[in-house]
Design goal:
The protein is an alpha/beta fold and 298 residues long. The chain is built from 9 helices and 6 strands, in the order βββαβαααααββααα. A 6-stranded mixed β-sheet has the order 3-2-1-4-6-5, with helices on both faces. Helix 3 packs across helix 6. The protein is globular. The relative contact order is 0.19.
C-alpha cells in the first residue's frame, strides 16, 4: 500500500495585530522528500498573514509541479460549534461553508496585520444574542456592548454549545468562542478561515477539506484520485516534541506534528486516522461532517 501523501505542510497560525516573528507568530513547517527521496524539513516564519498566505500558495503550487500530494494542517478550528449557521440564518445546504462565506465577508485583515477580529465577533454576538455572548475576550480598549474582556455567563441548554465535539474529546482544548488571552483560538479561527477559503477556491476540487468534503472516514489512495491537497485541522500539542537547541516552541510543534503524520503514512496507518472511533455516535459524525469539523488524530 502506497503512502497517501508526499509532503506534509503544518501551520501554526497567529492573530497578531502587527507584523511579528519568533515566538507566538506564524510558523510553517514543510516536510518533503529531497532529490535522494529522503525526508527533509524546512521552516518559514512570515511576519504577516498576507505573507503567509502567499507563501502557502507558492508551496502548494511548487508541490503540484512535482506531482506531490500534500497534507496541509492548520492549528485553528475549521468549523464552529453546531448551531452557528442556523443561529445566523445563513443560506446554503452546508453549514460549514455558509459560515466560511459569512466570516470571509466580515473580516478585514490588512497587509500590516491590522484586523477587525473583535468587531467581527461583536457583530456575530449581536446577531445571535444581542449581548456579549458567546464570543468573549478582548483588550479593555476594544470592549463593546456586545463584546467584553471577560466571559459574562456560562452556556445553557438553549445556547449554541461552548465546545465542539472534537474539543470535548480532546480534553483541554480551548473553546473557539475565546478570542483573547493564553490558549485562545477564536481570533486565529476568525482570521484563518478566510485564508483557508481562498486556498480552497483557488484549487477547486484539487483541494479537499477534511472531513467536510471527504467524509469522516478512512481515506485510501482511490479516494484521493485527482486530489493535490487535503486540508485538515491539527492540534500540534497532541504530540510532545522537545525543541532543539535555540528552536522556538511553535516551530518544534509544527515539526513534530509533520514528522508524526509522515511516520504514520510510512507505516500505512495514516488513512485510518481520518476515520472516527468506532464508538462515535452517528449524530456526532453527521455534525462533524457538515458543520463542526474534527481535529486530525483526536
Amino acid at each position: 500500500m502506497a503512502r497517501l501523501f508526499n509532503a506534509y505542510v503544518m501551520v501554526d497560525w497567529s492573530a497578531a495585530s502587527k507584523p511579528t516573528t519568533g515566538a507566538d507568530s506564524i510558523w510553517i513547517g514543510v516536510l518533503k522528500r529531497d532529490v535522494r527521496f529522503r525526508f527533509a524539513f524546512e521552516s518559514h516564519n512570515p511576519k504577516t498573514r498576507k505573507e503567509a498566505e502567499a507563501l502557502l500558495n507558492a508551496i502548494l503550487d511548487d508541490r503540484a509541479r512535482h506531482r506531490d500530494r500534500v497534507l496541509l494542517g492548520f492549528d485553528f478550528a475549521l468549523g464552529f460549534p453546531r448551531g452557528l449557521a442556523d443561529g445566523l440564518k445563513l443560506p446554503g445546504d452546508e453549514p460549514w461553508l455558509a459560515v466560511w462565506n459569512q466570516i470571509d465577508r466580515m473580516v478585514t485583515d490588512k497587509a500590516d496585520n491590522t484586523n477587525n477580529r473583535f468587531g467581527v465577533a461583536s457583530e456575530i454576538n449581536r446577531r445571535l444574542t444581542g449581548g456579549p455572548f458567546p464570543f468573549w475576550g478582548c483588550p479593555p480598549r476594544d470592549a463593546l456592548t456586545t463584546l467584553q474582556p471577560k466571559r459574562q455567563r456560562a452556556h445553557g441548554p438553549d445556547d449554541i454549545p461552548e465546545f465542539r465535539h472534537a474539543e470535548v474529546a480532546t480534553k483541554g482544548a480551548a473553546s473557539v468562542w475565546k478570542l483573547y488571552y493564553n490558549g485562545s483560538v477564536g481570533g486565529q479561527t476568525i482570521l484563518g478561515i478566510p485564508v483557508a477559503r481562498r486556498l480552497k477556491l483557488a484549487r477547486g476540487d484539487r483541494l479537499k477539506v477534511w472531513p467536510f468534503e471527504t467524509g469522516w472516514r478512512a481515506l485510501s489512495e482511490a479516494d484521493l484520485t485527482g486530489v493535490e491537497v487535503v486540508m485538515a485541522e491539527v492540534y500540534p500539542s497532541l504530540i510532545k516534541t522537545a525543541p532543539a537547541p535555540a528552536e522556538v516552541k511553535d516551530l518544534a510543534q509544527v515539526r513534530g506534528i509533520a514528522e508524526h503524520l509522515a511516520r504514520l503514512d510510512e507505516q500505512n496507518r495514516l488513512g485510518a486516522v481520518f476515520a472516527p472511533d468506532k464508538a462515535t455516535a452517528a449524530d456526532i459524525v453527521v455534525e462533524a461532517e457538515h458543520e463542526e469539523g474534527w481535529i486530525l488524530g483526536v
